[in-house]
């Protein structure tokens, strides 16, 4: 049921082995101090707040939703699994309980073995978002986010939903889009969620990259929605757009990417109360979030403004480096989206595999686009410290010069 994930198999061990890491998309800091210290460097010397609140309350307040709308998870991957499984279960249960013309339910008639639920997943996209729903028995269909902007078009989703072979469980999107960095506004998410709801399903938004903005307003403004990149805007969390609180919408977030705390494996999902309660029942089947990680994560919320500002500066500087690099290269096509420290780029003379292999031979890690369904290019991610990323881009430029 759960096939090997080609991207995760490929990337394993490479960031540590690479001399220059342009593959890791989380905002990583150089490790310091005792490597056996369980407290991440960013949280050392900081204390948890003394207000007696829970981490669940902290997350709920950040997203402007109630506690009953939040489930803490062991990272975003765990959250995505729970969301896919809960959506599939709800789709099956809704179908099995639906009355038929003869007064029976499908469960009465066929023993609960109705048609498999379906998921609509964006294309291009991140491999686990396709394979995880398949692993829980959901039939997966795709809809395209067309280039070059790779925007989210609710009409395309509606067209694809009409052709499904079974009940819709969920529509899955990333925001920022992985691998291009495209960002969509809350109004577009709301329109897409309405399409999902019209077909009996949920919109599932992976938002681990949504806070990747360089500041407030300016070129980070999202035209056409109610998010403008400011920390106090409606529909905003950690400075980026969120679908949390929208009808029929489930979001996935974590402390791994923007906050650089991947070792804690702390994540969450938000959604309608009934959905969260069903996800809790799914959680009984798999390991849950560890209490020490919860305690350490509370330290982030005690100093949230300071730590978010530091992450935003890190993101802004790396975005500027990547945008400047692309502007200076006549042999690369693509775009670096406003505020994004990662992008999908294509070389004029070599496809994604050739570029990635040549880079790896020179000690530079970039990710082939084939893992996202885009074979012609590579995803270039600036997650390391800006000085390290500047050196990595120089090395990558020498690789490109030799192609």
From TrEMBL:
<dbReference type="InterPro" id="IPR015424">
    <property type="entry name" value="PyrdxlP-dep_Trfase"/>
</dbReference>
<dbReference type="InterPro" id="IPR004838">
    <property type="entry name" value="NHTrfase_class1_PyrdxlP-BS"/>
</dbReference>
<dbReference type="InterPro" id="IPR015422">
    <property type="entry name" value="PyrdxlP-dep_Trfase_small"/>
</dbReference>
<dbReference type="InterPro" id="IPR015421">
    <property type="entry name" value="PyrdxlP-dep_Trfase_major"/>
</dbReference>
<protein>
    <recommendedName>
        <fullName>Aminotransferase</fullName>
        <ecNumber>2.6.1.-</ecNumber>
    </recommendedName>
</protein>
<feature type="domain" description="Aminotransferase class I/classII large">
    <location>
        <begin position="120"/>
        <end position="396"/>
    </location>
</feature>
<feature type="region of interest" description="Disordered">
    <location>
        <begin position="18"/>
        <end position="54"/>
    </location>
</feature>
<keyword id="KW-0032">Aminotransferase</keyword>
<dbReference type="GO" id="GO:0030170">
    <property type="term" value="F:pyridoxal phosphate binding"/>
</dbReference>
<comment type="similarity">
    <text>Belongs to the class-I pyridoxal-phosphate-dependent aminotransferase family.</text>
</comment>
<feature type="compositionally biased region" description="Basic and acidic residues">
    <location>
        <begin position="18"/>
        <end position="32"/>
    </location>
</feature>
<dbReference type="InterPro" id="IPR004839">
    <property type="entry name" value="Aminotransferase_I/II_large"/>
</dbReference>
<dbReference type="Pfam" id="PF00155">
    <property type="entry name" value="Aminotran_1_2"/>
</dbReference>
<keyword id="KW-0808">Transferase</keyword>
<dbReference type="GO" id="GO:0008483">
    <property type="term" value="F:transaminase activity"/>
</dbReference>
